[in-house]
Every structure is written in C-alpha cells, then in structure tokens.
Automatic annotation (TrEMBL):
GO terms for molecular function: long-chain fatty acyl-CoA hydrolase activity. It holds the Pfam family 4HBT. GO terms for biological process: acyl-CoA metabolic process; fatty acid catabolic process. The lineage of its organism: Eukaryota, Sar, Stramenopiles, Oomycota, Peronosporomycetes. The keyword Protease does not apply. This is Thioesterase superfamily. GO terms for cellular component: cytosol. The keyword Hydrolase applies. Residues 78-177 form the HotDog ACOT-type domain. It comes from the Eukaryota.
Length: 177
C-alpha cells in the first residue's frame, strides 16, 4: 500500500523527512531497490494488461492445454462491459471531504461481481484477489461516478474482471486485476 501526504490544498506534501535506519544503514538502500523492482514489475504488468485489453475476444481456447469442460464459447470483450453509476453521501467521506477508498473498493467489488453474474449466468460469485489498485483523483459527494467492469480473462472455474472508473468522464480508477 502506498500513502501520500497532502498539504492544506490537498496537493502532495513535498517536505517529508528523509528515511533513515540508524541500526542498519544499508536497509534503506535495499528498500529503495525493492521499490524500483516493484515499479518495474508494475510497468510490465500494465503492458500485459494493455495487450489483453486490446484483444478482440476472450475464450477458453486461449488457455492452451489447461483441462476444461466441453463448453467453450467466445465472447467479445466489449460485450462483457457493465456500467454502474452512483453518488456518495456525506457518511462516505473522510476528513478531507472525499469518499473513503474503502467505499470505492466495495463499489468496485460489487461491479465486478455483477459483471461476473451476467457473464456466467451464475449468481454464486465471490471475489478471490484484488491487486494493484491506484486512486488517481478524489471523489466528492457532488460527483456522479460511473464504474465500468469487464471480463478480461477466463479459466475453467474463474474469470478475471477489470474495473475502470470514470468521474465526469475523467479517469478515476485504472484497471485492476
């Protein structure tokens, strides 16, 4: 998880103290190296996600030799998109007057499950993982936000859904996987 310190104008606060470890001077360098590796992995993953997003369809045949049932049908990615709009109440706000990230995560989960229910025709759905979520813009109570979810991967008993958020047609939440 990454947290950002904000100034009185809700802009990133740049005057943070330097991070040190008096008992292990090299520890901070190791942590920086790990952070660089994670950033590199994130960039590679974004590239892979873009490749998948650009695919014209998702199908079980794409998985090669994995065992699967007889049923195999192709579904264009664009046909799996579900869009949900909502507005938030003052009880959903944090001290900065913006919607709690947990409220947005809950909404993302509901959108993904709804997308999955429609795609599979099965109402018995659960979220397994959610990884690499970034919030780029705040959501306030006067915003009407739209969440789009789409299927971007299919396995024998699982599918992967991606949530894309829009706030007044601006990008709010990038894809998750």
């Amino acid at each position: 998880m990454t947290a950002v310190a904000l100034d009185e104008n809700n802009r990133p606060y740049r005057q943070l103290p330097e991070l040190v470890d008096a008992s292990d001077a090299k520890r901070i360098d190791r942590l920086r190296e790990i952070a660089l590796q994670r950033k590199s992995m994130s960039l590679r993953r974004k590239k892979m996600e873009k490749f998948v997003d650009d695919l014209p369809q998702v199908s079980l045949e794409m998985l090669g030799d994995f065992s699967r049932t007889e049923w195999s049908e192709k579904a264009p990615v664009k046909d799996t998109i579900v869009a949900l709009s909502t507005s938030f109440l003052p009880c959903h706000l944090n001290r900065n007057g913006t919607v709690f990230g947990g409220e947005i995560l809950s909404w993302m989960d509901k959108a993904a499950l709804y997308c999955g229910r429609i795609f599979t025709g099965n109402s018995n759905m659960v979220t397994v993982p959610a990884d690499r979520i970034s919030f780029h813009l705040p959501v306030r109570t006067n915003d009407v936000a739209t969440m789009e979810a789409r299927v971007y991967g299919v396995r024998e008993s699982k599918f992967s859904s991606s949530n894309l958020g829009r706030k007044n047609v601006k990008s709010l939440i990038p894809a998750i996987s």
